[in-house]
Amino acid sequence: MVHSDRRKWLALALLCLVQFMVVLDIAIVNVALPSIQLDLGFSQDNLQWVISAYALVFGGFLLLGGRAADIVGRRRMFLIGIVVFTAASLGAGLAWSESSLIAARAFQGLGAAIITPAALSILSTTFVEGRERNIALGAWGAVGGFGAVAGVLLGGVLTDALSWEWIFFVNIPVGVIGFALAPVLLHESRDARVQRFDLPGAVLVTSGLSGLVLAITQAGQHGWLSAPALTVFALSGLLLAGFVAWELRHPDPLMRFGILRTRTVSGANVAGFILGTALFSMFLMLTLYMQQVLGYSAMKSGVAYLAVAGTAILWSAVAGQLVTRVGVKPVMVVGMAMLTAGLVFFTQVSLAGSYLGDLLPGFLLIGVGIGFSFVPISIAALAGVRPTEAGLASGLINTSQQIGGALGIAVLSTIASSRTESAVASGTLLPQALVDGFSSAFTVGAFVAATGVIAALTLIRRHELESVAPEVVDVDEALPDAA
């Protein structure tokens, strides 16, 4: 069944709206953490779990969520994810204790891990590979970049204007709209060839990836050579090795490793990992710099990111047009280069910094980097992928970005805190010691982002991006349309 053009673009608007809600919640809690700590009586050690619980489950279940969408039905899983995420958002807003909020955040992560790959795979099977899909993925990439910035912006505004609970309540109307419109605008599709679900593979990869995120989080909290971190790293490594061994012998594997033989797909995942590592940690460091050094309120910190948000939207639209004209590779190289330049600029943050001198130029560079990175990475991650494996490819790229984000936050936070502690021990006053720590973190982040330029230059293949995926299964006829 062929979608009408109008229905296609309305479907895209719905998918982007729901994905914006998901991406928003990765960063929206950052600015609200002090208020949450005060209201619910969080200990300093447990406060980071408001972020980590979401990241742990989101990163761990993405690959499973993506393949489940291929097998069970993409629209069906999308609706399930919306229900889980919306209910968890209500629970988070009504949380009365540390444990209740952390549990609600974990369920939010589960809903996000179901929604994101299902939505991206619906997009990839709705739009034909080439110019049409590039435009759609340009919009999707813009939502990814803008949502990350809007999270810290809205987090500050809602916390100061209303209360921290509203950073979660704001998701509820979006979830209701998404659930109501999805059956009307989205067709059902799945991989009808798979006869049985690979449960052992699902258990191994989900526990292995969750363990990896947990190990990274513990390393950032307790030290990279601490016993808890090393133990969980070893266990997650064994689980993931077991997953690979199992998948290579299973007749209907959860993950067909042949998908990574396309150099551009594997390159997009490397670039996505690097992007997540540099970007998520950068926003955390910038927020802490504004609040702890410059004395910004939550509201002022959020509004400060307007420059990034506006720039990211503008340049995402430009990137969506450019990838069709000059190709994915040049756009991605420029994006990663601009992200690197922005981080290099932030290495000179100062104790008496100003918005115009120390933040705005870097924000403008980062905005260009976001637009010119998210869009081509989203396109390259689905290059030549069969429609029946769209969910798998979607789960892979989102897993790469999420694992990268967890690693970046843990590593750069460790670098910043270690440098600050060292400076204080040598007699430096705390405010200047904090600046020294943030500067060191931005320096390492710039080196990480620079490797993204190298990855884009060496791993992205133009001829693979120009090839059209074979239509193995007619995804609109794989299941009857229940709309």
Topology:
Layout: H1 5-27, H2 33-40, H3 44-47, H4 49-72, H5 74-93, H6 98-126, H7 131-161, H8 166-169, H9 171-185, H10 199-222, H11 227-249, H12 263-293, H13 298-304, H14 306-325, H15 328-346, H16 355-380, H17 390-425, H18 430-459, H19 462-466
Helix pairs in contact: 1-6, 1-7, 1-9, 4-5, 4-6, 4-10, 4-17, 5-6, 5-9, 6-7, 6-17, 7-13, 7-14, 7-16, 10-11, 10-17, 12-16, 12-17, 12-18, 14-15, 14-16, 15-16, 15-18, 17-18
Would you mind describing this structure in some detail?
This protein is mainly alpha-helical and 483 residues long. It folds into two domains: 5-197 and 252-466, Growth Hormone, Chain: A (Up-down Bundle), CATH 1.20.1250; 198-251, no CATH class. The protein has 19 helices and no strands. The chain has helices spanning 5-27, 33-40, 44-47, 49-72, 74-93, 98-126, 131-161, 166-169, 171-185, 199-222, 227-249, 263-293, 298-304, 306-325, 328-346, 355-380, 390-425, 430-459, 462-466. Helix 4 packs antiparallel against helix 5 (74-93), helix 10 packs parallel to helix 17 (390-425) and helix 14 (306-325) packs parallel to helix 16. The longest helix has 36 residues, at 390-425. The two termini are 12 Å apart. Mean pLDDT is 78; it is low at 466-483.
CATH architecture of the largest domain, by name, is Up-down Bundle
Query: How many separate domains make up the residues?
Result: 2
Main pleated sheet: none
Low-confidence stretches: 466-483
Number of strands: 0
Helix content: over 70%
**CATH superfamily of the largest domain, called what?**
MFS general substrate transporter like domains
From the alpha carbons, calculate the radius of gyration and give it in angstroms. Answer: 21 Å
Question: Which oligomeric form is depicted?
Answer: single chain
In N-to-C order, the SSE pattern is HHHHHHHHHHHHHHHHHHH
The overall pLDDT, averaged over residues, is 78
Query: Structural class, judged by helices and strands?
Result: mainly alpha
**CATH topology group of the largest domain:** Growth Hormone, Chain: A
Which shape, going by the Cα principal axes?
globular
Using the coordinates above, name the CATH class of the largest domain.
Mainly Alpha
Q: Roughly how many Å apart are the termini?
A: 12 Å
Proportion in β-strands: under 5%
Q: Helical segment tally?
A: 19
